[in-house]
Amino acid sequence: MVTPSKRNADSGPGLPTGILPRARGTLRVLILLVGAGLAVTGSAQRVEISWPTPNPAWERGRAFDAWVQPTVSGQATSGLWGSVRSNGTQFHEGLDIKPMGRDRNGEATDPVMAAMDGVVRHVNTRAGDSSYGRYVVLEHPGVTPAVYTLYAHLAKVEPGLRTGLTVRRGQTLGLMGRSAGGYAIPKDRAHLHFEIGLRLTDDFSSWFTWRKFGSPNQHGLYNGMNLMGIDPRDFLERWRSRRVDNFAQFFAGRDSAVRLRVVTTRVPDFIRRYPALLRKPMDGLVGGWEVQCDVTGLPFAWTPLSPTQVAGQRAGTVEILDVDSAALRSFRGKSLIRTRGGKPTPGPDLTTMLQLVFGLRS
């Protein structure tokens, strides 16, 4: 049975009034702990990252059609990250990289390699269990924030690769292929699906159960619905041209598509895991959050609010403060905002992010 993923999951209900549950008490956070996270943002060194396949086209500066694997449409852009499919209405959360080599039967023979030093967090060897097919997820504690990378549609996983194993940049993780659950990839379109991103919550299992998808979650925290990917090509191009040296700088330069306020004393595990995304230290008590999201709904900039700043507002209130309507209109693969009574409210994809990150259960 194929575990639901972000490719086939329904979008869920709209965000109701009284959006978030009250936290059980107020959390006090040490300034020094979070201040250390902010210090890393400014001082992080240049990331060491490599292309995850033997295809040399990107490293040689060639156009993307030299390495991208298109869909059946034949359009090279369909293998890129973004709203690139179904006339711009379908979101693709990664890069599809075509093979350099094939065997006598026409199957891909390229090894798939770790893009950075990291730790194996998930290995799925059963192709039918996910729309990713056979896939591997690495976490990269040596970079800030500690992003994940994902390698999907593998023909096979490297023997001995297991959860918790430390791997080095360039180490083989598996063989490029065309494995998938719930649909078929023909051999002439075998490819590596490659993602870079952030994990939303440690409480994914309870959210998955609450949503009642009708099948078990076979991938724990590394189910695709709990992962939000950035554009790998955008990061790599900025990194190569030295416009950024690391992921902290990349996130600091993101454009905000939606800015919102959440009234809650909760300090989500997301921001504890990625303190480099804080725009200011958490100074004592937290009464709420101002969060900036990009066009996909990824919450990339966090500003803690004091209880005084949200005085008189009901716990659980979510308020949309600002929307870049032009950016959202040009990125149709996600539904972040809906208008009700002349006011912007969270759309299905933003609702899902808020459910996962802030623990919405209503």
Automatic annotation (TrEMBL):
Residues 92-196 form the M23ase beta-sheet core domain. One of its GO terms (molecular function) is metalloendopeptidase activity. This is M23ase beta-sheet core domain-containing protein.
